[in-house]
């Protein structure tokens, strides 16, 4: 299914099941297909799942602009308004988590009951004067340069760390290959622009506005969104958040720790 955003971009989404609505926002580079192991589980448990392909991703249009967090959050709002969804649970992985937080800051929580941030790139990744533990800007630029130089090679090098297979997580070579293929299917322009948007973001002021129930799930071995800059910081800045940290999980815990994550999501929805 498709709808048009305010700037005329045609975005794809999936809509499965009936009941209370969960809107799923995917990671940068990944499409709605990443939720393959969450959507059937939630539908079987009586929930309706709506999953968006971000612009430049999956089946959506691939425009040259609109990959900043404000526009991506507005795209999420446009989907929710298009379907006239109410009492929504927003669940975002990685950049999808950043979009979730920015959506709530820009559009409020009138249509949203609760939110879940999964391996989210929130609140602030880069080193700043008031964020001395952040990633050095030169290291971030080096990673972006490596991505620009050889995107398939960059993805291949990141794949094992993405799932933290070195810690014994059972992830097949086929699943790793499938994930890399999904990333390679994304617009190269969108990949680079999304990476830059995530690195430039400072969502600390946005987090300060959150008053709704919040679940935060993060892996201690996450190399893409280091936990001391993201999950643990969210828990500090939003004291009422329900924070869950998985000792052996990397960034791809939506698959490697799918049973635990699904149980956390279901308990959060029922709570």
TrEMBL record:
Gene3D superfamilies named in the record: alpha/beta hydrolase (3.40.50.1820)
Keyword field: Hydrolase
MF annotations from Gene Ontology: hydrolase activity
Pfam annotation, one family: Abhydrolase_1
Domain of life: Bacteria
Domain called AB hydrolase-1: residue spans: 31-256
Keyword hit for GTP-binding: no
Protein name: Alpha/beta hydrolase
């Amino acid at each position: 299914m498709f709808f048009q955003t305010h700037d005329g971009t045609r975005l794809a989404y999936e809509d499965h099941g009936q009941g209370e609505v969960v809107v799923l926002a995917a990671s940068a580079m990944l499409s709605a297909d990443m939720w393959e192991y969450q959507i059937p589980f939630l539908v079987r448990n009586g929930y309706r799942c709506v999953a968006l392909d971000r612009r430049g991703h999956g089946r959506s249009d691939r425009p040259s602009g609109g990959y900043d967090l404000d526009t991506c959050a507005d795209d999420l709002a446009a989907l929710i308004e298009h379907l006239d969804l109410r009492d929504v649970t927003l669940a975002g992985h990685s950049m999808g988590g950043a979009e979730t937080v920015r959506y709530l800051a820009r559009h409020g929580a009138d249509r949203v009951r609760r939110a879940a941030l999964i391996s989210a790139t929130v609140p602030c990744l880069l080193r700043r004067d008031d964020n001395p533990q952040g990633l050095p800007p030169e290291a971030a630029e080096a990673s972006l340069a490596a991505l620009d130089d050889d995107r398939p090679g960059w993805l291949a090098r990141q794949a094992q760390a993405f799932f933290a297979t070195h810690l014994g997580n059972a992830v097949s070579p086929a699943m790793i290959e499938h994930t890399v293929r999904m990333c390679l299917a994304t617009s190269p322009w969108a990949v680079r622009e999304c990476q830059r948007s995530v690195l430039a973001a400072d969502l600390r002021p946005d987090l300060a506005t959150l008053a709704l129930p919040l679940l935060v799930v993060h892996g201690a071995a996450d190399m893409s969104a280091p936990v001391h800059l993201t999950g643990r910081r969210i828990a500090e800045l939003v004291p009422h958040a329900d924070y869950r940290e998985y000792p052996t999980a990397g960034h791809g815990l939506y698959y490697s720790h799918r049973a635990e994550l699904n149980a956390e999501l279901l308990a959060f929805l029922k709570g």
